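Let us practice reading a record.
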Amino acid sequence: MNIPDFLIDMLNVQYGKEITEKILQGYSKKRKVTFRVNTLKSNVEKIENRLEEEKIDYKKVAWSKEAFIINNVRENEIKKLDIYENGEIYLQSLSSMLPPIILSPKENADILDMAAAPGGKTTQMAALSNNKSHITACEMNNIRTEKLKYNIEKQGASCVYIMQKDSRKIDDFFSFDQILLDAPCTGSGTLNLEDANINKHFTIKLIDKSISSQLALLKKAVKILKEGSEMVYSTCSILNKENEEIVKKILQENRIEIVPINFVGKEELPLLPTNLEGTICICPNELYEGFFIAKIRKIK
């Protein structure tokens, strides 16, 4: 199997052999195409009718009316549809739709998206708040910022202001009602076994670099989150070094607490065990990417 030996060893230590085998099987699955309806431009009923016209077979999930799983066509077929072209739907993994839903962005709230490109979660937050929140979308990379701008315009997310900046360097005089930190990570939950170069780019050095930036970003997030307010920390990693251990370090140093994650439909997620109560980690399979999510409240 085209996976670094050291990663398999880490997974065995963290999860045990049986769960690790399940994770490895999940990596090898061809994931189904998923998208969400962009309620800023369309509605679920219209999209269902359009899919039925095209004889596209779909199913839904219990935790979101807007999320669709496509059973009988691949991504390139969806991209040919007018509903994709004009931004009525957005291709997005099911796992990555969860952090905005768990954050539950509010109308009139000042919201920060700390690592926003390419904009899937940013535009989802705009839709969830009916374009009536004030979202600052941060991205430090020039090319990724252009992609972010494109998606925000295409999705009609007019409540978003783009800040091209390293989120770790945001001035401390800023303060936000809600923060989404979908942190840069190793992507250990989303490995593509068809990538012949996994062993070249998935390295111990990458893990160390990810941990360093995750800690700095989460420290900054807690500093600029208003007292009594909530944020979400997420990664597409299933390694506790990037997940629970990062959150635990910040818990020790700051006046914050974990808000247990509960929502309708949570029971249908393929969950992995975590060692920090109230957080969730999703196992990769044919529907979901591996993903970790923690909800955090800053204590008054």
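A brief commentary: The chain has two domains: 5-30+96-298, 32-92.
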